[in-house]
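> run fold Bis(5'-adenosyl)-triphosphatase
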Amino acid sequence: MESESFTFGPYKIDPKEVFYSTQLSYAMVNLRPLLPGMRFNPVSDVFAIRDVKRFTDLTGDETSDLWFTAQKIGRQLESYHKASSLTLAIQDGPQAGQTVPHVHIHILPRKGGDFEKNDEIYDAIDAKEKELKEKLDLDKERKDRSMEEMAEEADQYRKLFI
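> ok
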């Protein structure tokens, strides 16, 4: 990997930060820990090698390889960090919180109690993506939907695949 060249949008990545690669994707450690005060950062990201801005712009082979790589990396990180679960997340486009226009999957090994509320992980990802600027507390604005509302939406989505 020392001789390979990696980029993340406009940024050149030092091959020393990359710990796994295939012909189509690579995995690297993060610059900043997700949680303050952590010496080791259990979060890693898997990137498409080709500079692709949006998930839907990946080829079929790139999509398969990216997720296969995320699965492989996640399995190993979960075991290494003695975690019991994984959060896998993609922020696809600026309105989804993507701050660097390059497809990547966040992989976060999870343990019971690592966040007071499980969904706080998404706020933490958003904060990390924005270079740890002030994060929004999205839970304040969230309201549970009824089963009927959710079923109606699911029916609409099913029609897209007929």
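The first helix runs from residue 60 to 80.
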